[in-house]
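Hey team,

Filing this mostly as a record. A colleague (T.K.) asked me to run one chain through the structure pipeline before their review meeting, and I want the input and output archived in the tracker in case anyone asks later how it was produced. No errors, nothing strange. Just documentation.

Input sequence:
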Amino acid sequence: MQNNREGVDIVARDSQSRRILKIEAKGGTSSVESSNRFGQPYTQTQVFDRVSKGVFTALQFHASRKENEDAALAVPNTKWFRYYLDPVRSTLESFGIKVFLVNDDGTVDRR
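Output structure:
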C-alpha cells in the first residue's frame, strides 16, 4: 500500500500568540514498505526531487496562508539536503518561510 499523502504534514500552534505554523516535512528514506529503497537513504537525485517538491509546497502554504499562519519546510539534516537548500534558504526565509533541519536524534537545527 502506497502512502501518498497530500496536505499539511505538521500543524503547530503557539498557545500564547495563537499563530499557526504549517510545516511540509520531507524524510530521508522511502516510507513505502514495498519499495526496493525502503529504509535506504535517498540518492542525490532523489533528494533534489524531495527538496524541489518541498520548497514548492511550502511556497503554496505561504501563498494561501491566513493572517495568523506561517509556513515552514522540515528536512533531514544531511549533506545533500543542505547542498540543495543552502543556496535558496535565505530567499525562503525572506518570504517568511522557516527551514528546519532535523537531526537523527530528533533535534532541530535552524542555523
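Quick notes for T.K.: The two ends are 37 Å apart (CA to CA). The longest strand covers residues 69-76.
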